[in-house]
Queue: 2 jobs
Job 1
Amino acid sequence: MPELKSLGALIGAGLVYGIGALGPGIGIGFLVGKSVESMGRQPEAAGMIRTTMFIGIAFVEALALFGFVLSFILQGQA
Amino acid sequence: MVLAFEVPPVEEMFSFKTLVPIRLGPVDASLSGAVLLLFLATFLVGLFFWAAARRPALVPKGVQNLAEAVVDFVREGIVMEVMGPEGLRWLPLLVTMFAFIFVNNVFEVIPGISFPVTSRMGHPATLAFMSLFVFNVAGVQRHGLLGYLKHLLSPPPGLRGVMGVVVSVIFIPIEVISTLLVRPLTLAVRLFANMMAGHIILTIFYVATAAFLQPKLAGVLAVAPLGLAVALTAFEILVAALQAYIFTILTAVYISLAVQAHH
């Protein structure tokens, strides 16, 4: 039974990071793409857009980082 | 002929021998290589700015020129963009933060050191605690304690009546957790994860180069991992600067969110 538990923990550790990175990956892609698009349309607002973009990236990236931390916690359970 | 090589275990890449064991109650405060590197980084940053400001010249040259470029980058690229002129009082903190994190990160690619101090969780965690402390103190300074709590616990504007109550019940706990817990946690983990991943990747490629160079195998095979290792080293310098920039700009953003007028 302990083997099964550590097997589950290790598989879970891999999955939780991989799946956890999917959504934020797509999200950051959209976010930066749209920001670059609007910087192209309005170069004089580039500074403001860049700042807002970084705030947005920070919030979206947080989700991927949760997956990263959880995968470490799960590895510790193995 | 087997094309295999041994990668050292991850724990080994990030641990140092204890040089002087020190215990402060339950806390292990021993002096090890990582702590010495931390002292070295502190000393280097201090020396850099001291040398730059020792004999300030109207027309800067040498180290003063470099220091002015750093200060100007943080001033124009971070403070003025995020906080505007009223944020200039935070400039010394942010410049120091940027320079310190950058030096600690860039140790990753300095020959003879090859270890980013920020890839051990304690260091980014301390920096993130500092950021948390600073933006809360900035908010309390601006709004007063009650005003800051009101600022933190206020419902989203524009909703009245039952809807306002319902949204507030959901919104306020999320906002408090996001401000006081998620912000420092993500600041620390972002820096730590990036530097740790960089260190592991560089280690793997240099170990592979060394393994393929052995006379038994054809030395030509080492060209590919060596080329990739050099390219990744350049990439890691970029990551070191980028992570220092992101940590600093997010601290600036959190300070400006805490002090901004409540609407």
Job 2
Amino acid sequence: MAPNVASSPNENWETQIRKGWLDLVILASLWKEKLYGLDIIRRLEAHSELLLSEGTIYPILGRLKRDGFVDAEWVESDAGHPRKYYWLTPSGRCRTAAMAWHASTFLARIDSLIEPILAKEER
Amino acid sequence: MSHPEKLQQKIDSYLMQLRRSLGELPPDEVSEILKEIRGHILERAEASGELTEERLVTILKALGSPEQIAPLYQADALVARARSSLSPRVVMRGIHRWSTLSIWGFVLFVLGIVGYATGAALTLSGVLKIFAPSQIGAWVGPHEILNIGVTSDPAARDVLGWWLVPVGLIGGPALIIATTRALRWTLRFARIRRPATA
């Protein structure tokens, strides 16, 4: 089990990390298909623990839309209320691919740095 | 549903609070945001089977309070609009938002005020020179380096004379436009930090 650092003074650091990854995680969730906000949230819940408060995702989607990385459209649903679907624009796809590449390089470097620490903890 | 009316009231009051907190955004943007958040709440509520007040509280808590969410929209949207606007008012509002978050924003906010005030004073002097040519001028004297406007120094000399009219009427607005463009340009580099909720 990972030690729980959420309630320690490191909480702020954790929050920063989450925020830093959110853009990429949201863009990545749209890589294969169009999704609406709650869809994206459910996906994030399933794949990561990145989201602290669900409402955060909507302003980020709005910003990504203004920056031209995603586009959006209201679609009527059986649920009785319309859903706003988002998808990646061509420039959003480029951006996501670039971010994914950066992230993986970055993670590999961090990994090699913290590996000895984690190995020591396990013993 | 246990108390449908009461629950509906709770949702409405949440959305109303969000609307109030979003006050500074354009109305069409606000209604778009509310429509999306309402959809989120309703869909979460439907997915939970029988909706109890307790369930609803959990849903709203997971969403975050209106006071938490609204600034996330505002910091971004105000600056985004300022970046593409030619109106000094909209640009200064964006700069002001930035100035509450960063020292650079504050420095630019002060520079912006100086730029606009100088531009306005220059324009005003150009206009007033036409009506009060002997009192308005670009004064240089023993006690002042260059004072555009009215002077209290009897020894001061008006260096521009009637030239103050075209200089004020063209230079003043030009300075205002230049200030707007410069501030807008700097906003491209504004890294707006969002409040610490993720």
